[in-house]
Amino acid sequence: MHFAELNGVALRYELSGAGDRTLVLVHEMGGSLESWDEVVPHFAPSRRVLRYDTRGAGMSQKARGELSFSAMAADIAALLEACGITGEVALAGVAVGGAIALQFAAQYSERTSAVIVGSPAAGIAAARRSAALERLARIEADGMSSVVEDAMLNGYAPELRGDARRFERFRARWLGNDPSSYATIWRMLANAEMAETLGRIRCPALVIGGTLDRVRPPAIAQEVAKAIPGARYIEVNTGHYMAVQTPDLVADCIDKFLTSVNA
């Protein structure tokens, strides 16, 4: 693991693998670069793989104040420069990480060969915004444990808990989030308006919906796909935290799509 101070924030990252092409992996809200632990080995033999803790997550600098998806995308650009990675890269992200990857694809189109997103969190519907803001206020006041049962029930469906150790490890890691940072990222999501951003994406794009995702059901993911010019959409048997829950399935979706578009 490595650390770098970029754009005024300290970020933890890992660059592994080999090859001429680079895949950037962006984790979900409440996750960390470890969310991709079982996905990376699928690509390391043939690609460089860059994964990192976003601002406010994992071991990166804690987040306070206002955040924007634009700033999150700029962090990826700075990491690429710090690692000496030039030219186009492919990106894959889950949930809020998917929205960050989509923002990068629109904001840095010249650097993006393809983007794959699972259950992308590209905003919060107006009807749900008030409840979301109340929830994050509870997190700030009472900590992550105050909402963990609901988060796991909706995001990590019981049907996907066959590997009990994997689930327990994820739950414990999720509980380790800094509540204020988590709320800051959630507030960024609540204030996001990404419709125009999605319409500016020109690279090949794949949106993955999770049949068992009760946080952002497939219909929401499909609406995001419809907003991206030429995007493909597939639905697979997974949940919201899909890179953790079904890493082989997610890796296969990423690999097949990148092969199909030669990215």
From TrEMBL:
Record's keyword terms, sorted: Hydrolase
GO molecular function term, any single one: hydrolase activity
GO cellular component labels: membrane
Record field: transmembrane: none
Domain AB hydrolase-1: 22-242
Origin: domain of life: Bacteria
Official protein name in the record: 3-oxoadipate enol-lactonase
